[in-house]
Amino acid sequence: MREMFMTDGRKLSYLDHGGPGRPLLALHGHYNEASVFAPLAAALAPRWRVIALDQRGHGESDRARDYERDGYVADVAAFQRHLGIGPAPLLGHSLGGVNAYHYAARHADQVSALVVVDIGAVVDSDRTFTLRLPHGMPTREELVAALGGAAPYLECSFRQTDRGWGFSFGIADTVESQQALSADHWTDWTSVSCPTLLVRGARSDELSAEHARDMVARRAGGARLVELPAGHCVHLDTPSRLAAEVTAFLSEIGNGADTEAAVG
């Protein structure tokens, strides 16, 4: 079920994938929106209820004045307040993974466990793909053809407007967001104190095996690394395997028993 709330004069949208399970908050990456977690939500059900935010400038959420970390983190804080839940596990992929560990570092009392999917503590975004994205295509089929092999990873964000077929994110906004994401994030990563699972796609071109191992080694509070047979979009390439790892991780650290908050 899709819902809306207001924060700082902007509308933010989120998708509650439903079910009787305990809340697991989720943050998507660039080019995506909350609905991208549908396969993972189905695989995690019924034990976990995935509630995913359309981050600023994505999906049905409003565009923002800027796409810096402080704004993204403030949105997550407003999201959790709106839901009215206490400390909960937080999962983030790519852009969402960086936002998730920044939020966990700054709001330690609100994050009971953290799952970061295929993103590093140092990010250098290549904006070439973004700048070449087609938009205003006459038909959905032509948009799919123009995207080629990338189409399945972006299709959740396809939208039809009076200008033709494009995306639920702005290309210029995405470039700005990627520029802001390209930075050294070690301070926030190493400041996270909650139990953390770092998931790397074995075929990822975003997070190298060496950097992932370094991230785990430099986390004084402890973190666990898992590699799955996937590319960068682990939650789409192998949702059942990711769900199994997330479920095992949260069960082992006690979140299966401790996260009792319900969403009305």
Structural domain count: 1
Mean pLDDT: 95
Fourth CATH level, the homologous superfamily: Alpha/Beta hydrolase fold, catalytic domain
Low-confidence stretches: 257-261
Order of helices and strands: EEEHEHEHEEHHHEEHEHEHEHHH
Q: Please compute the radius of gyration using only Cα atoms.
A: 17 Å
Helical element count?
A: 12
Helix/strand class: alpha/beta
Q: How much helical structure, as a percent, in the residues? A: 25-40%
Key traits:
alpha/beta; Rossmann fold; two-stranded antiparallel sheet; 37% helix
Explained architecture:
- The protein is α/β, with parallel strands linked by helices.
- The chain has one domain (2-258): Alpha/Beta hydrolase fold, catalytic domain (Rossmann fold, 3-Layer(aba) Sandwich).
- 37% of the residues lie in helices and 23% in strands.
- The chain is built from twelve helices and twelve strands.
- The chain has helices at residues 38-44, 69-83, 95-106, 128-131, 140-147, 151-154, 171-181, 186-191, 209-217, 234-237, 239-252, 255-258; strands spanning 2-7, 10-16, 22-27, 48-54, 88-93, 111-117, 122-123, 158-161, 164-167, 183-184, 196-201, 224-228.
- Strands 1-2-4-3-5-6-11-12 form an eight-stranded mixed β-sheet, sandwiched between helices. Strands 7-10 form a two-stranded antiparallel sheet.
- Strand 8 and strand 9 (164-167) form a beta hairpin.
- Helix 1 packs across helix 11 (239-252) and helix 2 crosses helix 3 (95-106).
- The protein is globular and about 50 Å long.
- The model is unreliable at 257-261 (pLDDT under 50).
